[in-house]
Design a protein that fits this description.
The complex is a heterotrimer of chains A (126), B (488) and C (491).
Chain A (H helix, E strand, L loop, with lengths): L1 H9 L1 H19 L3 H22 L25 H32 L4 H9 L1
Helix pairs in contact in A: 2-3, 3-4
Chain B lengths: L1 E4 L2 H18 L4 H27 L2 E11 L2 E7 L1 H28 L4 H19 L4 H19 L5 H33 L15 H14 L11 H4 L5 H35 L2 H21 L4 H21 L3 H32 L15 H15 L5 H16 L2 H26 L14 H19 L2 H14 L2
Parallel strand pairs in B: 1-2
Antiparallel strand pairs in B: 2-3
Chain C lengths: L4 H18 L8 H26 L2 E4 L10 E4 L1 H20 L1 H8 L3 H20 L3 H19 L7 H30 L4 H8 L6 H18 L7 H7 L3 H27 L1 H4 L4 H23 L3 H22 L2 H32 L9 H4 L1 H15 L5 H16 L2 H27 L15 H19 L1 H13 L5
């Protein structure tokens, strides 16, 4: 029993990612304000970014920079740079998406005068 | 069969397709426009005539335009059967073009350019059906025919045309996509080929599967108007008469019957019909259609609808003829393809002439009309004799062979069906002619006939029906050869 | 020189897009011609590349000389070089055809529009070429973002809101894909497609791999618009600007379909997919529902473009049904249908847009359609016949292979559904034809007078002719484009 609980609690990084994703999803679905939805979308993306970074963790590893006078490289000592690099790209993508979504929200606001989804929808029905 | 690689079949199809831009260009010059139609028709007939001698010797002109699937491509093959059909269709197109000039101008119809354009495309498709080498090409041109004849059927663009047009497309395209296409694909997946071979290409299919596919194809090619897929034919009578004449006496319905002839003789083969229950089932179905058509024709009040149901009945003569295992029956069925075409087109021409001259569609209005339109009703008399199957008209030859072949191949019941149907034909054709010339109220002999082009067309086709009794030789030779090659 | 063509197409596209934008400060009337030149250049590179692939076979191009699995590689083979050719060609024809309309509508913002246009095409090209899973995500996002921006142009009231809804759904799809890649990376440590496929072979039973597969495929399906993830499609494509809808509708979903085929067939392998019975059944059901749903709902629409969007949804159902059936003929049919569908959708949307400009959006108002717009409606009918599946138009041949595959596998529900949807599509387009022929219930409003500019005729003729040519050259397409892709995968 303690085994299983230890096993579940040991994977807390995955649980955090799941929780964040659900928060983001909730915001996207349940909130009526467009800006809140956009922020929810960003939280969703952030959850995935955190997920990747968390899997790149290595206990006791150091920065993956090789110094001049090292001849023998012990790969196990260095942290894997790849997940971090991937997530840099993903952060850029998330920020760009955020930007585009905000630009669209500005346009929507200019057109309808409101950012509440239900008000926009009722205005569109007319 | 000796193969000759030649572009001629392609040219035959292309003559009318290439005339389309010229017809559209000359929309404002009716004489030039109709002249182009006629020239294209004459060219087409000439090319078919050129191919005919070689095909009588057993050769076939082939060309594969493009390979589409492994072993199956867009291929044309002008063999004897195809040439016969193409001969009839292209010759009658010339006559119908002449007739259309009189009819459309007499009624001052609208959109004549569109009419001639789609007429040309429909004829190309018919020749494509005639010269198809495999089921896929046949299907392609068959669909093209259905679609290109729609604007012709719905020419009048009124409410009636709308509902009839809907029925037309539903029955034809619905059955071909819903039944024929699945059957073709299934056949291809089992046999890996779709070419027409004289003894059929079935090979290793179970009887259950073959029978299912057989009936899917029989009903899928609904242009052959086998009950219950016949309802589009009376509905299509809403079209202008030249359309009904050529398309529904010669091109569309004959394409359907022709497709079934190809399917029965060259995909399944008579051996299949002899061995399985599909043969007797087909005999039953076609006999029912024959009798049904003749009976329904007796209850119609409108002349064109009588002719439509008569066509439904006569088409099944062809299908029944080629499915009976007897050389005489095959000969009769194929001969009927030609004889019925000439006879029926005469009848439709007369119906149209009556409409142009007097605007009458119902037979009760036609009492005494014979005294005003003697030529028309004389032609009607000759045409109906051919359809009934009495000498000295060509239709007698095909019916004789059919009845005799039916007796030899199946027995008395089927022969009885043919004879009964002829009797019924008398019952609905003869009263029309009799009342026209000998009405109950006295009428004067006043000459007011249809326009000249219509008259000429009628006279030509009825005289040909007469001549074919005495000199049936092109068709006799053709059908003799074919029944030898294709028969079991 | 020609080894680098694949990279040239993508990177030059990205760079030149920005150059196009900067041109607006020099002289704004130069932007559109320059964009057309750039697209022409990309198309000619694609033609040369495709010929090269046919002559010398596929190759792998490592970026920066770093060999995979460490580096990112572009795997150029017959199918994706042909698709890049198709994409760039259709984009080029589209912008040429809409030359005048663009200048009138967009006005001063033409620089930005052209830049976005070229960026979108480059993003699609990148998705097609890349052999690296994460690179696919990046290029997918490039294409998506520019797509969101492009789709927001159009009807001022409706387009931005529709686009922002697409932003939410699309981002979720891309995030699912990213998550799936994450799981794959955890297990295999690699992101190169070929490398991952080799490593997965020993890991088939791992639940991580199965989860990864689920996330990736659902992410791709959301971006592709498969039922039930299609909700963004009608909204996004209906209200947008003509030239944009005839750019994005043909290509956006089809390139995602290619990504689906690549990931499922190359990375995971068809055996993985069909190991359990559950997956084919699920996919079958989804494909079936997509096909039926699209066909039936299209019947209810009165807005022409919305109707065409539901036709697109049906087509996507066909693409996935090939995967559901899973044998060689069915997948050939799906891929063939994907290629054909680019041209069919392009034809329908291009001519549809012209019809809308002239006769309004309501189908019921299309009286005398054939008299008023003869050439445009003729091209529209060709596209319609292709959707129904009448030979010799291209739509028939894709369906033939799909049906063949269904018969061979014994998957009769899909067989019947495909036939049924052909009939439903016939009814659908017949409705438009009838209204054009006999008159509709709404009084027609003839809005734009005059014939379209000559460049539009170029586009129309290309659209109509390409449908028939693609149909007639089916055999060559299968032999030279599709079979070389499928044979190494064992299909």
């Amino acid at each position: 029993m303690a085994d299983i609980i230890g096993y579940i609690l040991g994977k807390y990084n995955y649980w955090m990612a799941v929780v964040l994703m659900m928060i983001g999803l909730y915001a996207m679905l349940a909130k009526k304000n467009l800006i809140k939805k956009i922020v929810g979308m960003n939280i969703f993306q952030t959850a995935i970014i955190l997920f990747y970074i968390s899997i790149g963790f290595k206990k006791g590893a150091t920065v993956p920079i090789i110094e001049h006078n090292t001849h023998v490289i012990d790969v196990a000592k260095y942290a894997n740079p790849l997940p971090h690099v991937l997530m840099l790209t993903a952060i850029v993508v998330a920020v760009s998406t955020f930007g585009v979504a905000l630009a669209l929200a500005v346009r929507v606001y200019q057109e309808h005068g409101t950012l509440e989804e239900n008000e926009i929808l009722s205005e569109l029905q007319e | 069969m000796e193969k000759v690689y030649s572009v001629l079949p392609l040219y035959t199809i292309l003559t009318s397709l290439c005339s389309v831009p010229f017809i559209m260009w000359n929309a404002k010059r009716p004489n030039l426009r109709e002249g182009i139609s006629l020239i294209a028709g004459i060219l087409k007939f000439a090319i078919v005539l050129k191919m005919l001698p070689a095909t009588l010797e057993g050769k076939a002109y082939e060309i594969t335009l493009v390979e589409l699937f492994p072993n199956v491509g867009l291929s044309l093959k002008a063999d004897l059967l195809g040439c016969m059909f193409a001969l009839v269709a292209s010759f009658l197109w010339i006559i119908t073009s002449l007739y259309s000039i009189g009819y459309m101008r007499g009624l001052k119809e609208h959109s004549q350019t569109r009419y001639y354009v789609f007429f040309a495309i429909a004829l190309s498709s018919t020749i494509g059906v005639a010269f198809a080498k495999n089921l896929l090409t046949l299907y392609l041109f068959y669909e093209m025919l259905s679609l290109s004849t729609y604007p012709l059927v719905a020419h009048h663009q009124d409410e009636d045309a709308k509902s009839s047009g809907r029925k037309y497309l539903t029955y034809l395209v619905g059955s071909s996509i819903g039944l024929a296409l699945p059957a073709i694909i299934w056949l291809y997946s089992r046999l890996n080929t779709l070419d027409f071979q004289p003894q059929g290409i079935l090979n290793g299919l179970s009887t259950y599967e073959s029978s299912l596919l057989f009936f899917m194809l029989i009903f899928g090619f609904a242009k052959a108007a086998i009950v219950p897929f016949h309802a589009w034919l009376p509905a299509a009578m809403i079209a202008p008469t030249p359309v009904s004449a050529l398309l529904h006496a010669v091109a569309v319905v004959k394409a359907g019957a022709f497709s079934l002839v190809r399917v029965i003789l060259e995909i399944f083969g008579q051996g299949f019909l002899a061995e399985s229950w599909a043969g007797p089932a087909l005999y039953l179905l076609t006999s029912l259609t024959i009798l049904f058509g003749s009976l329904m024709a007796m209850y119609q009040k409108e002349l064109k609808r009588i002719l439509a149901f008569s066509t439904v009945s006569q088409l099944s003569y062809i299908v029944l003829g080629v499915s009976i295992i007897s050389p005489l029956a095959i000969k009769g069925g194929l001969l009927h393809l030609a004889m019925h075409a000439f006879g029926k087109i005469t009848l439709f021409f007369t119906a149209g002439a009556i409409y142009v001259a007097f605007h009458k569609k119902f037979i009760q209005e036609m009492e005494g009309l014979g005294r005003q339109m003697p030529i028309t009703f004389a032609a009607f008399f000759l045409g109906s004799l051919s359809i009934i199957g009495l000498p000295p008209l060509g239709g007698f030859l095909s019916k004789w062979n059919l009845a005799l072949g039916a007796y030899q191949g199946v027995g008395l019941p089927v022969m009885g069906v043919f004879l009964l149907s002829s009797l019924l034909n008398v019952a609905y054709f003869m009263p029309i002619v009799y009342k026209a010339f000998f009405p109950s109220q006295p009428a004067k002999w006043e000459f007011k006939e249809a326009p000249l082009p219509c008259l000429i067309s009628m006279i030509v086709t009825s005289i040909i029906s007469l001549i074919l009794f005495f000199y049936p030789y092109p068709f006799f030779a053709i059908t003799e050869n074919l029944s030898k090659v294709l028969g079991g | 020189m020609s080894i680098h063509l694949s990279v040239v197409i993508v990177t030059f596209g990205l760079l030149l897009a920005f150059v196009t934008y900067t041109l607006r400060w020099i002289r704004i009337s130069l932007c559109l011609p320059f964009a057309i030149t750039v697209l022409g250049f990309l198309t000619s590179c694609a033609i040369v590349l495709f010929t090269q692939i046919i002559l010398w076979g596929p190759f792998e191009y490592p970026m920066g000389g770093w060999a995979p699995p460490i580096g990112i590689a572009y795997n150029v083979d017959h199918l994706n070089s042909f698709m890049v050719l198709v994409v760039t060609l259709v984009a080029l024809v589209n912008i040429i055809a809409n030359w005048k309309g663009l200048q009138n509508f967009v006005g001063d913002r033409i620089g930005g529009f052209c830049a976005l246009y070229i960026l979108y095409v480059s993003g699609l090209n990148g998705i097609l070429f890349t052999g690296d899973l994460f690179n696919l995500y990046v290029l997918l996002e490039i294409a998506s973002l520019t797509g969101y921006a492009l789709l927001a142009i159009g009807d001022r009231r409706l387009a931005p809101f529709a686009s922002i809804n697409y932003v939410f759904l699309g981002t979720m799809g891309a995030c699912f894909y990213l998550l799936g890649i994450g799981f794959l990376y955890i297990k295999t440590g690699s992101l190169n497609m070929i490398d991952v496929s080799n490593l997965i072979k020993q890991l088939h039973n791992s639940p991580t791999i199965i989860t990864a597969f689920m996330f990736i495929i659902v992410g791709i399906w959301i971006k592709m618009g498969l039922f039930p993830f299609h909700i963004w499609l009608p909204r996004a494509y209906t209200h947008t600007f003509g030239p944009v809808s005839s750019l994005i509708a043909p290509m956006g979903t089809k390139v995602m379909a290619y990504a689906m085929f690549k990931v499922v067939l190359t990375v995971f392998g068809i055996n993985f997919v069909f190991r359990s019975n559950a997956f084919p059944h699920i996919v079958s059901t989804l494909a079936l529902s997509a096909i039926l749903f699209g066909s039936i709902f299209a019947l209810r629409q009165t807005h022409l473009k919305r109707m065409l969007c539901f036709v697109v949804i049906t087509e996507i159902g066909y693409l996935v049904s090939g995967l559901a059936i899973g044998n060689s003929n069915a997948i050939k049919g799906s891929i063939l249908h994907m290629l054909n569908d680019v041209f069919m959708t392009f034809c329908l949307f291009l001519s549809g847009q012209a019809i809308i400009e002239r006769m309004g959006v309501n189908i019921d108002g299309f009286s005398e359609l054939f008299v008023k717009t003869p050439l445009i409606s003729a091209v529209f009918i060709t596209g319609a016949l292709s959707v129904v599946g009448i030979p010799p138009t291209c739509g028939f041949f894709g369906k033939w292979y799909l049906l063949l595959g269904a018969v061979e596998k014994g998957n009769y529900p899909l067989f019947v559904t495909i036939i049924l949807s052909s009939l439903l599509n016939l009814i659908l387009f017949f409705k438009v034809i009838e209204i054009g022929f006999y008159g509709g219930k709404v009084i027609p409003t003839w809005r734009l007078t005059g014939a379209p500019p000559w460049s539009f005729y170029v586009g129309l003729c290309f659209a109509g002719v390409s449908i028939i040519l693609m149909g007639l050259f089916t055999f060559h397409l299968i032999r030279y484009v599709i079979e070389p892709f499928l044979t190494p995968l064992g299909l």
